[in-house]
Specification:
By secondary structure, the protein is an alpha/beta fold. The protein has twelve helices and ten strands.
């Protein structure tokens, strides 16, 4: 039986002893070698396959912790603003816990697969003009005391997501030289920084954002105002890293390359970190590219 993530790392998470963990079997995702990509660029490339989580994305790591605490605190409803992956995860974990899930999504920005996930498990879904408007309303609902916000502004989300850093260090028996990942709201990069700081060493972060944040085909990172921008800038400065703006052509090229050379089918946004790393790969480095979500999240992208 797989040990739930929050049990495996309970001594590193701010959960009270004896709290019943709301779990769907998240965490312990594969760290896969990428031999063809490594040979192509002269670096040692590894792929952290977060599409292996229960709802198909890294969001499940934080959601198990946030929803566990919400249930322990007597909440009846959770709320989030989402371009899709947070919605799917929040809806599933809320259903598991017997809580209502309210999803506020930006119009025209949610892939069909993600919307289907949230609907299937009974979430209440409403549409707003854009992500920023949806997030402000979600924050207002939490401030009113009727809902628990489960976006990454909830610090328990980042606490859960930091566990991916622990897994990478355990699998490699060291911290990688480089960690490349997509940059939408910035919460995931902050979570990795939190985890690696606890280990005692940071990799050099490469944060890949869409050149056209408003209209990118990589819908999961279609966020105009990153909620964690200042914390991301701090983590990048501390690690000697950088935020890189990538064209959709570059992101989609990396997406196809990942599928056709390494057999890993992810949603387009998940290939953004790899795209940024391929644009300027340091020779002889050991690098981990975080592949954040499964390709079945956005099947229409294949067409």
């Amino acid at each position: 039986m797989t040990v739930p993530l929050a049990e495996r790392y309970r001594d590193r998470l701010p959960l009270a002893p004896g709290v019943d963990v709301v779990t769907l079997g998240e965490g312990s995702t594969p760290l896969l070698p990428a031999p063809r990509l490594s040979e192509r660029i002269g670096a040692e490339v590894w792929l952290k396959w977060e599409g292996g989580n229960p709802t198909g994305s890294f969001k499940d790591r934080g959601m198990t912790v946030a929803v566990t605490q919400a249930l322990a605190d007597g909440a009846h409803s959770v709320v989030c603003a989402s371009t899709g992956n947070t919605a799917a995860s929040a809806a599933a974990y809320a259903a598991r816990a017997g809580l209502e899930a309210v999803i506020l999504q930006p119009e025209g920005a949610v892939a069909r697969g993600k919307l289907a996930q949230a609907r299937a498990v009974g979430a209440k879904i409403e549409t707003r003009a854009n992500f920023e408007e949806a997030l402000e309303e979600a924050k207002a609902l939490e401030a009113g005391g009727t809902h628990v916000l489960v976006n990454s502004l909830n610090p328990l989300r980042l606490q859960g997501q930091k566990t991916a850093a622990f897994e990478i260090a355990e699998d490699l028996d060291r911290v990688p030289d480089v960690l490349a990942l997509p940059y939408g709201g910035g919460g995931n990069l902050c979570a990795y920084a939190l985890g690696f700081r606890e280990i005692g060493s940071l990799p050099r972060f490469v944060a890949a954002q869409a050149e056209n944040r408003a209209g990118t085909a990589a819908s999961a990172i279609r966020i105009l105002e990153p909620a964690h921008e200042s914390e991301v800038e701090s983590a990048l400065a501390e690690s000697g890293g950088e935020a890189v703006s990538m064209t959709d052509d570059a992101i989609l090229s990396a997406w196809r390359l990942l599928a056709q050379e390494e057999g890993l089918f992810c949603e387009p946004s998940s290939a953004a970190g790899l795209a940024a790393f391929l644009a300027d790969p340091p020779k002889d480095a050991r690098a981990v590219c975080v592949i954040t979500g499964h390709g079945l999240k956005d099947p229409d992208a294949v067409a």
